[in-house]
Amino acid sequence: MRFVVGMVAENQHNIFDRFVKVEDEQKQYFRGTRIGLFLCQKIIQKLNGRIWVESVYGEGATFYFTIDE
């Protein structure tokens, strides 16, 4: 089984939604509860912060966050 890192632009807008299932071009589904990024976003928002992703399909994804004082 071959896994491709990163995600296409169409999937990036909703990656922090609850129970989102990301699928790559080979129709491979990635395992998990699909709630982790949603919870991270909620915690960071409670701390007056922001979280976002920058990704290039085939190269990887980098997640960033800031927390305001």
CATH topology: Heat Shock Protein 90
Secondary structure: number of strands: 2
Strand content: 15-25%
Q: How would you sum up the major sheet?
A: 2 strands, antiparallel
Low-pLDDT ranges: none
Could you state the order of secondary-structure elements as H and E? HHEE
Helix content class: 10-25%
Q: Ends: how far apart?
A: 44 Å
CATH architecture: 2-Layer Sandwich
- Give the strand order of the largest sheet, numbering strands 1, 2, ... along the chain: 1-2
Annotation field: number of helices: 2
What would you call the shape?
globular
CATH top-level class: Alpha Beta
**Tally of separate domains:** 1
Question: Rg from C-alpha positions?
Answer: 13 Å
Mean of residue pLDDT values? 81
Class based on secondary structure composition and strand pairing: alpha+beta
* CATH homology group: Histidine kinase-like ATPase, C-terminal domain
Overview of the structural elements:
This protein is an alpha+beta fold and 69 residues long. The radius of gyration is 13 Å and the shape is globular. It has two helices and two strands, in the order H-H-E-E. The protein has a single domain, classed as Heat Shock Protein 90 (2-Layer Sandwich), CATH 3.30.565.10. The chain has a two-stranded antiparallel sheet.
Identify the notable features of this structure and list them briefly:
69 residues, alpha+beta, globular
How do the helices and strands line up, and which of them pair or pack?
Layout: H1 9-12, H2 36-46, E1 49-56, E2 60-67
Antiparallel strand pairs: 1-2
Brief description of this entry?
It contains 2 helices and 2 strands; from the N terminus they run ααββ. It is an alpha+beta fold and 69 residues long. The longest helix has 11 residues, at 36-46.
